[in-house]
Amino acid sequence: MSPRRVDGCAFCAIAEGRVPAARIADEPRALAFLDARPVFKGHVLVVTQDHVADLAELPEEDLEPLFGLARRVANALEKGLGAQGAFVGLNHRISQSVPHLHVHVIPRTKGDGLRGFFWPRRKYESKDEAEQIAAKIRGALESAR
C-alpha cells in the first residue's frame, strides 16, 4: 500500500521527492531530514510517511517507527556530530509550522545557549493546585481508555 499524502503539505512533498531535502533516513513508515531553519546545525525533523496532522491522529502502528527513528537519530547526532545529547520534542496542534506530525531532534552541547524549553517556566501556587491539575489529567486519561 502506498503512503497517504496530502497536496499542499510541504513534508508530503519532501517525502514524495518533489521538494529537495537533506535526507538522513528514508524508512517505510518514517522519514528523517535536516530542518531547513535549524536551531543548531544538525537539527533533524522526523516525520511520518503517511500524512498525519498531529499526535492525536498517529496510528498505534506508527508509534515505534516514528519514535524509534527519532531515538536512533538522537544517538546518531552524538556519534556523527559529537553532540553531548539532544533535545527531542514536537508541537501538538499549537505552533506546528507545518500541519504534518514531526519530531524535532536537535543536537545539544553543554553551554550551547539553549535554555531548557523555549518559553518561560512557571510554578504551581501550591502542592494542592498541582494535585488538582494532575487529577484532572488522570481522569481524562482514564476515560480515554
Please provide a written account of the structure.
The chain has about 140 residues and is α+β, with helices and mostly antiparallel strands. The chain has a single domain (about 10-115), classed as 2-Layer Sandwich (HIT family, subunit A). Helix content is about 30%, strand content about 20%. Strands 1-2-3-5-4 form a 5-stranded antiparallel beta sheet, with helices on one face. Strand 1 and strand 2 form a beta hairpin. It starts with 9 loop residues before the first helix and ends with a helix.
Helix content: 25-40%
CATH-level-2 architecture = 2-Layer Sandwich
Instruction: Give the beta-strand count.
Output: 5
For the biggest sheet, the summary is:
5 strands, antiparallel
Number of helices: 3
Straight-line distance between termini: 29 Å
Mean pLDDT across all amino acids:
91
Overall shape: it is globular
- Predict the CATH topology: HIT family, subunit A
Q: What's the SSE pattern?
A: HEEEHEEH
CATH uppermost class: Alpha Beta
Q: What strand line-up does the widest sheet have?
A: 1-2-3-5-4
User: DSSP strand (E) fraction?
Assistant: 15-25%
In CATH terms, the superfamily is HIT-like
What oligomeric state best describes the polypeptide chains here? single chain
The total tally of domains equals: 1
Q: What would you call the structural class?
A: alpha+beta
Low-confidence parts lasting 5 or more residues at pLDDT below 50? none
